[in-house]
Amino acid sequence: MIDLSALGMAHIATYRDGTFDPCEPMPGAIYAKTMPVYDRLGEPVDLVAWASADPSRWWLRHGLATVLGEDDLNGAWWEERPVMLAATPAEWLEQRYLWPNKLWVCVLDWSADPRATLGLASEVVCTSTALQQKLKDEIARHVAPAFRIARAA
Fold first, then answer.
1. What is the rounded CA–CA span in Å between residue 99 and residue 101?
2. Is residue 45 a contact partner of residue 64, using CB atoms and an 8 Å limit?
3. Quick one: pLDDT at residue 124?
4. Residue 3: what pLDDT?
5. pLDDT below 50 — which residues of the chain?
6. Which of 20, 60, 87, 97 is the most buried (most CB within 10 A)?
């Protein structure tokens, strides 16, 4: 179950690297929802923040977390159940609250290889066709070599 007391609101200054710092209200600051990100053992490892007006964009406090719902990912492995993939932290929070009997994750850092991030799951069920395509594209991008392969003449 979600600990709703851990949710918060804060003004944040955001950076190009996907991180943020809490700040005082000022021009350019975003008033954002914040939520801790926990590891498989339930220890907090980072903080995620997103603006209510645009939940499709989020930032991490330290840039350490790659996925929300590591405990559910671990549960999917142990229980041999599919894991549900939410597109955003806001969707993850809503769906995990509405469907607590399902196992939910949200990829926070798509630069990480999704095969490693989601590798414990035997099946990943995406909440939309667009998210399903994004996952397929990211897996293909990580599988493709970062170099040209040539044959000697």
1. 5
2. yes
3. 95
4. 67
5. none
6. 20
Q: Measured between alpha carbons, how far is 102 from 100 in angstroms, rounded to an integer?
A: 5
- Residues 48 and 90: beta-carbon distance below 8 Å: no
Spatial distance between the Cα atoms of 129 and 144, rounded to a whole number of angstroms: 22
Tokens of 13: 């200054």
Q: Residue 130: helix, strand or coil by DSSP? A: helix
Assess contact for 93 and 82: CB atoms under 8 A.
no
> What is the C-alpha to C-alpha distance for residues 153 and 144, in angstroms, rounded to an integer?
24
Runs of H (alpha helix) within the chain: 70-79, 89-98, 114-117, 129-143
* Alpha-helix residue ranges (DSSP H) falling in 36-146: 70-79, 89-98, 114-117, 129-143
H or E element at residue 22: strand 20-22
H/E element holding 86?
strand 83-86
Tokens representing 24 are 């005082």
Residue keyed to tokens 């035997």: 122
Stated pTM of the model = 0.88
